[in-house]
Design a protein that fits this description.
Order of helices and strands: HHHHEHEHEHEEHEHEEEHEEEHEEEHEE
Helix content: 25-40%
Largest sheet: 8 strands, mixed
Length: 423
């Protein structure tokens, strides 16, 4: 969440930043409640001061044999008033916290201002989109014909937006997961983590999924537990409520998890194939950094995600998201979009974000500077390294052959037992 002191000191700046994110009126009640909170604190402090002084006077007067009945009654009334003020203060502070939990991060100054994806800026691209001498097919046609993707039986099992991977399709998915993990661990220096696929509410609040996006989450019935929408949630929360040493930063972590998303409000968008599923596999990258290095770390994380696409030989572009297209917790985001022949366009396959101290404040993740300065919040970063199902789709479409077979990218063949082609 945002620093309340910063919001209080710069309300116009924050309102402008939120307006750029298409978020209007979120702070409408904040300043009024914050003013009420300070008034209650001052009033409570004055009454507590009176009560302490009066209590001392009661003792002194009793020693002198004076009548203290009226003064004792005033002390009792002061105590009752303090209780009432404390209750009001708790209610006001709860309201302020609820407001702040629903306010998104402030975009960095380098982020282009715009209302939607039309204002995103292409930063760079790699590789040339495929040119075919035949009419290329979409992955939702290629997979079933090869017997490696089964959407109909998945629907029988679980409904729409699920996929059964079969035979070499399942093996390809597993090969990609292992390739991604090996690359990020051995080439890029991330620590591999295998976290739980269910987390508690505190974790979801810590990274910003709750309370705002409750409708997008899969909650376990009867328990305050949620299926992870991304490994960003357990990885970032590994250090919730902890103080790290500066010498241990930056900390790099990577993890494979299945991811579960209700995709509320996405009806009609990318519903064919494996692009937008309720369950999908992803290898995630997370970094904890000191504030002075976090934007440097964002650039290197984005390059790490790009590397796996280059090794796979998949054309892509990197896009800097505008203020109106960014995620809730992010201050700056790069999307990596892979070329998909079926769309004749690029589709997102990775999103790399610097959240600054936004998540760290929610999850209370701090570090102790080596200079012995005041303990500070870390900066958190996350990125897809990358989405596995979308990688399968991109391989099927970009490596398809006229005879209906699909060439396996050379880098994956050792993970596929030397197999060169799916046919």
């Amino acid at each position: 969440m945002l620093d309340a002191k910063m919001v209080r000191a710069n309300p116009e700046l924050v309102e402008t930043a939120l307006r750029n994110r298409n978020q209007i009126g979120l702070l409408e009640n904040f300043l009024a409640l914050d003013s009420q909170r300070r008034t209650l604190l001052v009033e409570a402090e004055e009454i507590k001061k009176f009560r302490n002084q009066a209590s001392q006077q009661v003792g002194q007067k009793m020693k002198q044999g004076q009548d203290v009945e009226e003064l004792v009654e005033r002390v009792r009334q002061a105590g009752q008033k303090i209780k009432e003020l404390d209750q009001k203060l708790h209610e006001v502070e709860t309201s302020i916290e609820n407001i702040m939990l629903n306010v998104p991060n402030i975009p960095d100054a380098s982020v282009p201002v715009g209302s939607d994806e039309q204002s995103n800026q292409e930063v760079r691209n790699w590789g040339e989109p495929c040119q075919f001498e035949f009419e290329p097919q979409a992955h939702w046609d290629i997979g079933p014909k090869l017997g490696i993707l089964d959407f109909e039986r998945a629907a029988k099992l679980s409904g729409a937006r699920f996929t059964v991977y079969k035979g070499l399709g399942a093996r390809l998915e597993r090969a990609i997961i292992n390739f991604f993990l090996d690359t990020h661990v051995y080439k890029h220096g991330y620590e591999e983590i295998f976290p739980p696929f269910m987390v508690n509410r505190e974790c979801m609040v810590g990274t910003g999924q709750l309370p705002k996006f409750a409708d997008d989450m899969f909650k376990v019935e009867g328990r305050e537990m949620y299926l992870v929408p991304t490994a960003e949630v357990p990885l970032t929360n590994l250090y919730r409520e902890e103080i790290l040493e500066e010498k241990d930063l930056p900390r790099y972590m990577t993890a494979y998890t299945a991811c579960f998303r209700a995709e509320a409000g996405s009806h009609g968008r990318d519903t064919r194939g494996v692009i937008r599923q309720h369950q999908f596999n992803k290898v995630e990258l997370v970094k904890l950094s000191t504030p002075d290095k976090s934007f440097e770390e964002l650039e290197s994380m984005t390059r790490d995600a790009e590397t796996v696409l280059q090794l796979l030989g998949l054309p892509y572009r990197v896009v800097l998201l505008s203020t109106g297209d960014m995620g809730f917790s992010s201050a700056k985001t790069y999307d990596i979009e892979v070329w998909m022949p079926s769309y004749n366009d690029y589709k997102e396959i990775s999103s790399c974000s610097n959240c600054l101290d936004f998540q760290a404040r929610r999850a209370n993740i701090r570090y102790r500077p080596a200079s012995k300065e005041k303990i500070r919040y870390v900066h958190t970063l996350n990125g897809s390294g990358v989405a596995v199902g979308r990688t399968v789709a991109a391989i099927l479409e970009n490596y398809q052959q006229q005879d209906g077979s699909v060439i396996i990218p050379p880098i994956l063949r050792t993970y596929m037992g030397g197999l060169e082609r799916i046919k």
